[in-house]
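WARN no homologs supplied; continuing
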Amino acid sequence: MSASTNACLLGRERAGASFPAREMSFILDGGEGMTDYKERLRSLLTDPVFDLQARYYLDKEGMYRRGLAQASKIHKIVRENNLEHLEHCFLNTLLGDIAPTNLHDHVFVPCLRSLANDEQKERWLKKAENYEIIGCYAQTELAHGSNLHCLETTATYIPETDEFEIHTPTITATKWWIGCLGRTATHAVVFAQLLIGETRHGVFPFMVQVRDVNTHHPLSGVSVGDIGSKIGFHPVDNGYVSFDRVRIPRTDMLGRFAHVEKGGRFVKPPHAKLAYATMIFVRASLVFGAFNSLGRAATITTRYSALRRQFAPDKKSEERPVLDYLTQQYRILPLIATAYACQFTGQYMMNLATSLFSGMSSGNLDSLPEVHATSSGLKSLVTTLTCDGIEVLRRACGGHGFSAFSGLGHILGNALPTATVEGENYILTQQVYSGPHLVYLSIYLSLCTYVFLHSQPTHPL
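OK structure emitted
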């Protein structure tokens, strides 16, 4: 079947829609102006380095280097067009891939914005935004991920020198799975148990340099490297790090909400979960980004199903597109509806998180428990729907769905970590502990069910 025939068949299917597709784009994007704006940003990605076809012929090293080249080009585009941080993040989502600096842009920089005090922002934030330093979020350890209270890395206050000593006391305390750390990062926000004298005050974030910014060699007392190949996320250098009594200044404890004064007096945060504020923002971002993954997979499978022909009602007739068969529609259409539901839910979740962080700047923490529970529950629900849905869509493409060139395996491989990062989904649902938050999720599920029922085929094929 020729390319022109394919285009004709797709055009015929699109012409048969019962609604104007362009107006649907306006709804999904949040208005006609936002659609136009996103298209203008998308038009900036014309460099050959953004060509998706090249990735299928690359090994791990090649994908990493290609990712760095893409990140460098996007950073240049951001500078030349004077784009804001959120616009930078949006360009990253248009890549169809994950850049090695993705965790720097989406986690490390927001972490500095939310947890660093004004003096620390003066020291680090502009450098981070300009890629003068590259950072990562070093929380998970070899032995502990979800149970953050039992992290083993320690930050012991040394009153004689007014410093913290960052230490990895056991091999299980090694920071593990840390994105952007294996080869790229020069700095890390390290979550460690704060020890002052004999008192353990809990887990707090500390800014620790791990590599020289000029030579990129590990600093004294720092053992750092890449953890190796993974199922997906290939361009990202997930790494490990351990510390052998590394000293940092007392003022390098991220101190917007909690800090240690000279001499060792600990000033507690106004809310115990404020140290994990970045996690809340990342969970909200995962909810928001689920539509992108599931929507791409649904688009690929729908287009394939419109072109793929199998069986004819009689010998004189042409074979029918598999999209015309009821069984195929039952697999695809509910997942298109789910992608739309994820989009609207993601917009709501990001608005909720943005409102929280705006209030935090003036000391208003009233919505923190609600946003924490809602982001936990929705992250678990939406990423599970996304991962399961992409696999259903991959199978709906038959043998071609198993080919790397379909793009579906790539999308699935990059989506799978979302069910684990920032809280493993089965455990994370336990954060949804009170009636109001269960009501929110019930409403969401009801909306999904409504959309599902009203998207079913109305005629047998």
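Confidence is low (pLDDT under 50) at residues 455-461.
OK
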